[in-house]
Amino acid sequence: MLAGSIERVTFHNPSNGFCVLRIKARGHRDLVTVVGHAAEISAGEWVTVSGVWVNDREHGQQFKAAFLRASAPTTAEGIEKYLGSGMIRGIGPIYASKLVATFGAEVFEVIEQTPERLREVPGIGPVRGQRISQAWADQKVVREIMVFLHSHGVGTARAVRIFKTYGNDAVQVMAENPYRLARDIRGIGFRTADASAARLGIEPAAMIRLRAGISYALLEASRAAQAGL
Q: Could you say which of 52, 64, 70, 160 would form a disulfide bridge with 17 (CB–CB 3.0 to 4.6 Å)?
């Protein structure tokens, strides 16, 4: 288990979430390289990761994360780095510095609860302020979806794929019928969907589970037959 702040996002593939991060981890003098998956990730965020240490032949020692959870930074330095990373539309390094200078560590609260106050910052008018507010709201939705998926036993890599498939409807899909994962997302089988269903309180004898099991068996048989052609 590692926890620390992201100093740099070395690489991030938005299509599948694969990322390479350099983090300032607690208990480590030097920056640590973390390899994992995240729907969206930015410098300045605080991350908690669990996984294993590996020695890559080309890149040396890395922490391979099976689970990665990111949260908004709380220090002024982290907040400025996060806002200046380009993660929030309408804010670059210059406006990030101005926002932190004006609102300090309360800047996220201002963006979310009293966005009209953003106009107190020189150069931020109604249009830019609205853009910033909307971008922050979008980020919050993504974060809440990932937290929901993690809390129901979905690993980070699979959580990213679920989010990429269903977008903002991911929580609704999971809550209403987690067995759709086995049907809609290649690589996620009935067992994985069934484990998530159990965490959501779906009983083993529930009709939705029995129907999903039959449908998945037929789907796999169809795929096997097509592969044999």
A: 160
Amino acid at 46: W
Angle, helices 76-83/93-103, rounded to nearest 10 degrees: 150
> What token pair was written down for 7?
């100093």
Q: Do domains 2-71 and 76-144 have the same CATH topology?
A: no
Going 12 to 181 to 178 to 52, the CA torsion angle's sign is negative
pTM given for the model: 0.74
Average pLDDT over residues 41-52: 92
- Residue 228 is predicted with a pLDDT of 66
Q: Find, among 174, 166, 169, 167, the residue nearest to 149 by Cα.
A: 174
CA distance 77 to 94: 14
Question: Which regions of the chain does DSSP assign to beta strands (E)?
Answer: 2-12, 18-25, 32-37, 46-56, 60-71
Q: Which class is 2-71 in CATH?
A: mainly beta
Give me 105's structure tokens. Answer: 């560590």
CATH of domain 76-144: 1.10.150
In one-letter notation, the amino acid at residue 4 is G
Q: What residues does each domain of the chain span?
A: 2-71, 76-144, 153-227
Number of neighbours of residue 204 by Cβ within 10 angstroms: 9
Handedness of CA 110, 112, 113, 116 (dihedral sign): positive
8 Å CB contact between 98 and 123? yes
Structure-token pair, residue 41:
């990730």
How many helices, marked H, and strands, marked E, lie in the chain? 9, 5
